[in-house]
Amino acid sequence: VFKVYSEGLYEGDKRVGTVVVYRDITKEFEVDQMKSEFVSTVSHELRTPLASILGFTELLINRQLKPDRQQKYLSTIYNETKRLTALINDFLDVQRMESGKQTYEKKYVELSPIIHKVIGNLQINTNVHHITFTPLTENDYILGDRSKIEQVFTNVISNAIKYSPNGGDIHVKMYEKEGQLTVDVEDHGLGIPEEALTKVFSKFYRIDNSDRRKIGGTGLGLAIVQEIMRSHEGEVNVSSKYGEGSIFTLTFPIVEGKRKETDTEKRNI
Ligand code: ADP
Fold first, then answer.
1. Is 20 helix (H, G, I), strand (E, B) or coil?
2. Atom of ligand 1 at shortest range from CA of 190
3. From the CA of 8, how far away is ligand 1's center (Å)?
4. Cβ of 49: how many Cβ atoms within 10 Å?
5. Is the distance from the beta carbon of residue 83 to the nearest atom of ligand 1 less than 6 Å?
6. pLDDT of 130-185, one tens digit each?
7. Cβ(221) to ligand 1 under 6 A?
8. For this UniProt entry, which residues form the secretion signal (predicted)?
């Protein structure tokens, strides 16, 4: 993208030419575009749960409702409030990561219990998906920040659910490969078009295809996953067949031999 400036060149009163200056403003243009994407995503993502909270509280205040109705509305309000909180935490996380202010409190932690816990929490909210976990190694200690690692698995497995709108099996497999502790999260959902595979980890990037236009999100989940994995000397990668499903692969450096959670390492990254 270029911005063009032109200026007449004069000798006395006589115009003898024109100077044209092209300035490459691709970067500014991209930043502007990202800003406006950000504003529209934020306002849409905040407005939807807020509208629902507002609507249901109005009903609860103004109408005499049967207890089961009340209960139903209250649990909707509760869930939408949780959604808002998670959303705001995502924005704050990204902000902290960008300013280099994110801190990680690392200890030796075992991955299997974390994965079990995350799956348990997510399985409650769906009965059309069946999530299984196969640990193929017992050597599953990593040096990590427990809550951040939970967030990594929550984001990746909840995406597997969200982008498999027809339900289906989600398979989590943990194994050792080339000296790395590796976890695959495999789904049989919408999949990712090839040209989008490298972009899904970028901030605010969302695939705008008709198959997923109704699915909400901010485009921050995977950017956060990538940042957390890098801060753990690990990686996240994806392979996918559009229309068939995706496999997100997380790799962590292995810690040889099991250790207790007493060794701590606090770091500012
Ligand atoms: P969000 O889900 O809020 O859009 P993410 O950063 O988590 O943001 O994901 C970015 C994009 O990558 C999503 O918009 C979605 O289109 C695509 N994506 C992520 N996970 C999957 C998956 N398991 N299957 C298909 N598409 C996915």
1. strand
2. 25
3. 51
4. 20
5. no
6. 999 999 999 999 999 999 999 999 999 999 999 999 999 999 999 999 989 999 99
7. yes
8. none
Side-chain half-sphere of 177: how many Cα atoms within 13 Å?
9
Q: How many other C-beta atoms are found inside a 10 Å radius of the C-beta of residue 119?
A: 18
Distance 206 CA to ligand 1 centre (A): 6
Ligand 1 near 157 CB (within 6 A): no
Q: How far apart are CA 256 and CA 248, in angstroms?
A: 24
Q: What is the mean pLDDT of the chain?
A: 90
pLDDT over 60 at 264, yes or no: no
d(CA 38, CA 182): 33
Our measurement of the distance from residue 37's CA atom to the centroid of its chain's CA atoms, rounded to an integer in Å, reads 16
Beta-strand ranges (E) seen in the chain are 2-11, 14-24, 103-110, 129-135, 141-144, 168-177, 180-187, 235-241, 245-253, 264-268
Compute the Cα dihedral for 64, 70, 72, 74 and give only its sign: positive
Asked whether the beta carbons of 37 and 204 are under 8 A apart, the reply is yes
Residue with tokens 């924005």: 91
Q: Which ligand 1 atom minimizes the distance to the CA of 224?
A: 6
Percent of the chain whose predicted confidence (pLDDT) is above 90: 63
Place of tokens 């816990």: 117
- Select from 200, 163, 185, 222 the least CA-distant residue to 111: 185
pTM higher than 0.90 for the full model? Answer: no
pLDDT at residue 33, as a whole number:
72
Residue range 69-97: mean pLDDT, rounded: 91
Rounded distance from Cα 50 to ligand 1 centre (Å): 23
